[in-house]
Amino acid sequence: MLAAGRSGSGMALALIVLAASAVSLFPAAASLSVTSPYVRPPPRPDALSLLLQDDDDGDGQTPQQVHISMVGPDKMRVTWITDDEAPAIVEYGTTSGNYPLSATGSTTTYSYVLYKSGNIHDAVIGPLQPSTTYYYRCSSNPKREFSFRTPPATLPFKFVIVGDFGQTGWTESTLKHIAAADYDMLLLPGDLSYADFIQSRWDSYGRLVEPLASARPWMMTEGNHEIEKLPVVEPEPFKAYNARWRMPYDTGATPSGDNLYYSFDVAGGAVHVIMLGSYTDYDTGSAQHRWLQRDLAAVDRGRTAFVLALVHAPWYNSNRAHQGEGDAMRDAMEALLYGARVDAVFAGHVHAYERFARVYAGKEDPCAPLYVTVGDGGNREGLADKYIDPQPAISVFREASFGHGRLEVVNATHALWTWHRNDDDQQVVADQVWITSLATTPACRGSKGKK
């Protein structure tokens, strides 16, 4: 992978690669569009052993399914589950085995048909120092110590972006590949556990991702597999998702008031991330639409180099799977993102990878967002391998494989996007492009989109 590091030599390498790669930023003809001919290995079965796991210690007090998410610039939310009652306390410090600091949170449970969840604990810790490793334990339990590293307060900043995880052998490969290289935060555009009404799969998913999700903040928005609404019996949608994966929707400059959509800043405000909800009302006049207008209006592009947005159902898609399912949301919100010069939009839902050019209203536009579909985490429904032919000119690269993406915001002007294919048990860089900040592109300065 050609990625710029935090050193001067890394920056020099980045500029060299930028010069060599610049042609791929704005493809001008259909001849530059690529449908990968890669032949994928056969599918792998569900990781059934994970579905059967339970509390390893069997005492009901040992924390499990531990994960963290960012709350503001210097705090972290720690979430964990115990089978039995336990205190909702997190003890932490910068030395292993020594926890001079602590925070007490709250405990909730939920029921779904005949299922009763464990005790879901939640505590916010901080203030924390940036780029610092903290060691922590949950519920004062000495059996398991965890650690995480806080994100940096300045650029460069490294994201992993991947959707539609599930819990199969391919999911395990994806997680292994993610862990093999350093990153600061994971962004997930929906479809986590593929529990699909079987609530114990939420527990097995929590155990599966715990090694990574307890060590770096995971930030996400919901997908269709999180809805889990049953007429009469379970009329409340997103019941398990909202209980288990609480995001910072009530903090920041423009709190949304809804766990299904929110925004946050990283790297001292150099990057603004918007998590949109594909499965709650987004039409003009809706709460989400009004919030998005406020949120984008509050972004100072003189301070914020990059603005990213995540949705579940892609707004642009040349795969036959889920064709057109994001169109209504695009019609309602695309002009807002275009007017605010959002730099890139990442989506899931389609179980394949596809990168588009910068697009607005169906046409290439150098001042529009770059669109990327990464619904390729490894789910049990398999790959979406049927594409529309001929490949649209706005579609730059597409391939039906599992994998994950990495976005390194190198500085205030450039970010490097790289997609890593799951090639059997190896990760292979299959697509790469430099993204230039629209805030620093002279022709794109100002708000020119229709609002």
From TrEMBL:
Domain Purple acid phosphatase N-terminal: 63-150
Stored Pfam families: Metallophos, Metallophos_C, Pur_ac_phosph_N
The reaction(s) this protein catalyses: a phosphate monoester + H2O = an alcohol + phosphate
Signal peptide from the UniProt entry: 1-31
Top-rank EC class of the record's enzyme: hydrolase
SUPFAM superfamilies: Metallo-dependent phosphatases, Purple acid phosphatase, N-terminal domain
Catalytic activity, EC: 3.1.3.2
GO MF, one annotated term: acid phosphatase activity
Segments forming domain Purple acid phosphatase C-terminal: 368-428
Calcineurin-like phosphoesterase domain mapped to chain residues: 157-353
Xref: InterPro entries: Calcineurin-like_PHP, Metallo-depent_PP-like, MPP_PAP, PAPs-like, PAPs_C, PAPs_N, Purple_acid_Pase-like_N
Record's keyword terms, sorted: Glycoprotein, Hydrolase, Signal
Family stated for the protein in its record: Belongs to the metallophosphoesterase superfamily. Purple acid phosphatase family.
Name the UniProt record assigns to this protein: Purple acid phosphatase
Organism, scientific name: Panicum virgatum (Blackwell switchgrass)
